[in-house]
Amino acid sequence: MSNNLTQFDYYLGDSGPAALVVREHLSPVEGAGGVLFPATYAEIGYNIDGSDRTKDPNAQNIALIDSVGSQANRIEPLFAEPPLNALVPQIVIKAGEKSINLLNAGHRAGDAIARYSELKDALNAAFKAVLKGNALPLAKIAPTSLVFGVWDSRDTQAKLPRLIASTIRAYNVCKLTRSAVYSAPVDYVKEGVLSEEDAAKAEGQAKNPLSSTGFVNALANSTHGGVIAEGGIHRDATLALSALKLLKADNDENTRKLRRYILGLALVAFTRLPLGYYRQGTILVLATDGKGNSLPRKFDEVAFDGKRTDASAKITAEITLAYAQATAADFGVANGREVAFDDKKAKEAIAEAKKKKQK
């Protein structure tokens, strides 16, 4: 085990690399030229920076397919499944009839589901310890919050940066639109269910009650129809070793154990970047050359002087899992537990927030 514990200490030293970086070439499952659907955001729709290639075929643009936050929320739940579940405490929060693993909470240890549970006091103390430069208590409760970042924005303001940032972007995209129509199977005016006046008012009005209940024809014109990525699709990911080296515990020995443990979790997450289903109409796989071979993944160590060294051979899923298991055993993973959500404290917090808004 000692060899496993020390094999990546180079990454934690002052002379070690600043970061690990990965670039993967992706493709829609339909193949090159296939349509894929980027994430859609309120008010702006697709997040596309640059010019419209439907108007100028030589224009350059970039479409965001999956954000840093979305990628983190896809990777982190992997730690709830074997064999990775043994690497972190499995904290389940019971809220009414629903049970939520903390690994599935969008804001991690800073999420309201955790802050207003039986974990409240322990998390508050852990975040206060972070402000004093000691991340050990938080790592004992929610270690993946140290990997994917956390901000206790509604209380102590303690913040830890993401160690892993992964983003998927498509380059030089042509934006498509689509239209649809729903035709009611029965003429409800003739059947006496609707008046002609009500039917005429509701025609094509999506928010009309008659449309929402499906009693009149509905039209959808020029809605989001996906994009075609003429310049390819990349996943770019970074593991910020320089940020990891800033983590501290209450003494030197615990700091060493903490950094090794978090590095183990980060390396496991980094070698299990998600592929496959992203959303309706978007299934991404590794891109291939004309002979059906996957395009090579670029995996580098990046030194502070900018020198890049291929790391693909020494950092594999198998190697990083063995390392993570060794460092977790040395660190001491807390037992999992189920805790209750405190709806009384949650209601009190909501009432207090309303009072502050009224002032």
Question: What is the gist of this entry?
Answer:
With about 350 residues, the chain is of the alpha+beta class. The protein contains 13 helices and 19 strands.
Structure description:
The protein is α+β, with helices and mostly antiparallel strands. The protein folds into 2 domains: 2-172 and 230-358, no CATH class; 173-225, no CATH class. The protein is 30% helix and 27% strand. It is built from 13 helices and 19 strands. The protein has helices spanning 2-6, 9-12, 68-75, 112-115, 120-131, 136-141, 144-148, 196-202, 209-212, 241-244, 252-270, 317-331, 343-358, and strands at 19-28, 35-36, 40-41, 45-46, 48-50, 61-66, 91-95, 98-101, 150-151, 159-160, 164-171, 173-182, 218-229, 233-239, 276-279, 282-286, 298-302, 308-310, 337-340. Helix 11 (252-270) runs antiparallel to helix 12.
